[in-house]
Write a structure and sequence with these properties.
The chain has 15 helices and 20 strands. The chain is α/β, with parallel strands linked by helices. It folds into 3 domains: 93 residues, NAD(P)-binding Rossmann-like Domain (Rossmann fold, 3-Layer(aba) Sandwich), CATH 3.40.50.720; 214 residues, UDP-N-acetylmuramoyl-L-alanine:D-glutamate ligase (3-Layer(aba) Sandwich), CATH 3.40.1190.10; 132 residues, Protein-Tyrosine Phosphatase, Chain A (Alpha-Beta Complex). Pathway: Cell wall biogenesis; peptidoglycan biosynthesis.
Length: 465
């Protein structure tokens, strides 16, 4: 845990008592603050009370003595309308911040030069965060990974030299971190998302920009420049005097890091050199993972990690569960769990990564279905459709070979049989549903775990090393 000493002797309101909210309560108390905990959910309030915290309805208390409101990132700050607790804080002149802001203040007080890598972007945040954490561990750092990827930042160990914090940040978390100042900041990409919480795409992009704009003096801002918003952001950072490393997986760069012919390449001053090779790394297949790997490589190089260590780290990266996760192999058939592919855009990345696919798809359908995936249909040798979306997807697939399997166990059995019988050199049984899981499973993790279990129970399946 990271004790929050910056509010010692003061009273702090904490609203939103999920994982990060309760962690904030504990960290503030450990640092000497008095905490008043609140939530709109009575069960969360009861848990906080059982943990020994003072709880109250913040609508019925005086805000005169509050030094800050620590808000959970899931609570609206600006859109569609500010939460009532935010309005109360503004009326009282009380600052509204989040748990990562508390971390930033502690780092500046106690270890301002301790490495702190912050990662954001519309897509690829979690894989890039996990990959950087893996690379820094391979390089010998005491690595603390958290934030939006799972572990609340204040539940990690405190900042110190030799210890790196690798933190995934959503736009909601950036919004609540006004003094965000990582030593390495990464903005992967910007595309339309979370407009309900930010109002416009331009505002959403501006929030994302703050992560790389806030990088501390002497630090490095890493920006993927394959979309227009990020190209403009990189240019603004240049004009502001930031140390900017541009990343592209679509085009060579005169200065920056790009992906070409399976290699990560660095260009500077007219010279170019290969930094690392991605060929044969199954956990980093696809152009989207090339971007993740290029950004992670840029972060590693900025931290002084050698190219040999970087290459070894890339090759040993196991990937994330349910994201292009290689769960087994039988003969020439590879089984891949991409249960996190809960919409067509996510599934497009998976389909683009293989040539001979026995595709398991379906679940609770989303708007547009799989109509946007028709360009990948030539890669599909057979499709196995499950859940509520089966009939709709069958209609979209048309003449593409497919069956309505209804359930995942039938789909796995039939896909494995057909892939093996195909005789193809690199057949892939791919679960990438392009759907939510809620018709048959509580979440995508449970769906992916079931797929893994079914595959590993098939005779002759061996784990992928």
């Amino acid at each position: 845990m990271i004790p929050v000493t910056s509010f010692a002797g003061k009273t702090v309101a904490v609203f939103g008592l999920g994982g990060s909210g309760l962690a904030s309560c504990h960290a503030l108390k450990a640092g000497g603050a008095e905490v008043i905990a609140a939530d709109d959910n009575a069960e969360n309030v009861a848990k906080a009370a059982q943990a020994g915290f003072i709880t109250a309805d913040l609508r019925n208390v005086s805000w005169a003595n509050f030094a800050a409101l620590v808000l959970a990132p899931g609570v609206p700050l600006t859109h569609p309308v500010p939460h009532w607790s935010v309005l109360k804080a503004r009326e009282a002149g009380v600052e509204v911040i989040g748990d990562i802001e508390l971390f930033c203040r502690e780092r500046r007080r106690h270890a301002p030069n301790a490495p702190f890598v912050a990662i954001t972007g519309t897509n690829g945040k979690s894989t890039t965060t996990a990959l950087i954490a893996h690379l820094t561990k391979v390089a010998g750092y005491d690595t603390q990974m958290g934030g939006n990827i799972g572990t609340a930042i204040l539940s990690l160990e405190p900042p110190r030299m030799g210890r790196v914090h690798v933190i995934e940040m959503s736009s909601y978390q950036i919004d609540l971190t006004p003094s965000l100042d990582p030593s390495v900041g990464i903005l992967l990409n910007v595309s339309e998302d979370h407009i309900d919480r930010h109002g416009t795409l331009a505002h959403y992009a501006a929030v994302k920009e703050r992560l790389v704009a806030g990088v501390q003096a002497g630090g490095t801002s890493i920006v993927g420049v394959d979309d227009g918003y990020c190209r403009d952001i990189a240019d603004r950072l240049d004009r502001a005097g930031k140390n900017v490393v541009r990343i592209s997986v679509k085009n060579p760069l005169a200065s920056g890091i790009y992906f070409e012919h399976g290699n990560i390449v660095r260009a500077s001053g007219g010279a170019r050199s290969e930094v690392a090779a991605l060929g044969g790394i199954g956990s980093l297949r696809g152009l989207h993972n090339a971007q993740n790997a290029a950004c992670a490589a840029a972060a590693a190089l900025a931290m002084g990690i050698s190219q040999d260590v970087l290459q070894n780290g890339l090759r040993s990266f196991p990937g994330l569960a349910h994201r292009m996760e290689q769960v087994g192999r039988r003969g020439n058939v590879l089984f891949v769990n991409d249960s996190k592919g809960t919409n067509a855009d996510a599934t497009a990345h998976a389909l683009s990564s293989f040539a001979d696919i026995f595709w398991i798809a379906g679940g609770k359908p989303k708007a547009g279905g799989i109509t946007g995936l028709t360009g990948f249909f030539p890669r599909i040798r057979n499709a196995y459709l499950i859940g509520e979306a089966a009939e709709e997807f069958s209609g979209t697939l048309g003449t593409v070979a497919h069956e309505i399997s209804q359930t995942l166990d039938v789909a796995v059995e039939h896909a494995a049989r057909d892939a093996e019988a195909s005789g193809l050199a690199d057949a892939v049984v791919l679960l990438s549903p392009a759907c939510a899981s809620f018709d048959q499973y509580r979440n995508f993790e449970i769906r992916g775990a079931k797929f893994r279990e079914l595959v590993q129970a098939l005779p002759g399946v061996k784990p992928v090393v």
